[in-house]
Amino acid sequence: MRYAAALAVILAATPALGADKGAPATLTDIMAIKAASPARCYVETSVAGTFLRADRVANYGIGGGCDLTLANMVIGGGLRGDWKDGAGTSAGSIFAKLGISINNGAVVYGLAEWKVPEWKIKDAGQLGLGGGAELSLSIINPNLSVFGEGTFAASKFGLATKDDVNARVGLRYKF
Residue 149: which residues within 8 A CB-CB, separation 6 or more? Predict the structure, then answer.
């Protein structure tokens, strides 16, 4: 969570260019209320890691979701699947996020994620709370963005292990 907060501070401190001015945007430009936009859905690929435990692990994953932007507020959610190794050890998760869109290219958000080890919903689960940031890569492709997230295990149910800190970085393609 500490890393997600640091990332949010860095993104907020980075000067943004005003689209019509070619100069650094002012706080008024960044926080200007935008019109509501329709929901944009996306697919994502990511690498995630679990830290602060003896058995640190790295996972690769795929997922998808949708975001709705109302003025500058972003509401979204989706599903993910993560795999630890080629042997098929996997986990699924569902997530929800609530954030703010700044300067038409960056989003900072809070995150709640329910993880289910081995896809066994009736046996286990873990709630992770944290935050993240997403930055559009419009120079490369207007539909492509990079994101980073961090969660801290808030509670567990059943056979789930209580992972202390999880971090995830990845790419999203919006359509």
Answer: 4, 111, 130, 131, 132, 167, 168, 169
